[in-house]
Design goal:
- It is a single chain.
- The protein is α+β, with helices and mostly antiparallel strands.
- It has a single domain, classed as Beta Polymerase, domain 2 (2-Layer Sandwich).
- Helix content is about 45%, strand content about 20%.
- The chain contains 3 helices and 4 strands; from the N terminus they run αββαβαβ.
- Strands 3-2-1-4 form a 4-stranded mixed sheet, sandwiched between helices.
- The relative contact order is 0.20.
Length: about 120
């Protein structure tokens, strides 16, 4: 095998690994959204950031989840719970919409993907 062929094979392998991780992270985000609403009383859950676009998600990307209606006293328990749903090594940011600044709220509402809505 020559140098170029070897590198092409390695790049294809890396891309497949990244794709599998993306799929696992998206599946975990769906489970997290369901738990946030059903177990922790949130009203609406959004996915934002690199996990919304497959080509933007990389091996060291984190997962950004915005949530509305989650009571402050349930935040850390909910965060701890949803961390356990994701593959090892993926960090999760849980952003309460009630605490977000106007710019972030706007980004969530215009670019975010609604994962779960209690309505």
């Amino acid at each position: 095998m020559d140098y170029i062929t070897t590198w092409k094979a390695r790049l294809a392998e890396d891309e497949e690994k990244r794709h599998r991780l993306f799929e696992k992270a998206r599946e975990s985000a769906e489970k997290a959204a369901k738990a946030l609403v059903e177990e922790f009383g949130a009203e609406k859950v959004y996915l934002i950031g690199s996990l919304t676009i497959e080509n933007d998600f990389a091996e060291y990307s984190d997962v950004d989840i915005a949530v509305s209606g989650l009571k402050t006293e349930k935040y850390f328990k909910a965060l701890s719970f949803i961390w356990g749903l994701f593959p090892k090594g993926i960090e999760v940011d849980l952003i309460p919409m009630e605490d977000a600044d106007e710019y972030l709220k706007s980004k969530v509402l215009t670019e975010g993907i609604v994962l779960y809505d209690k309505k």
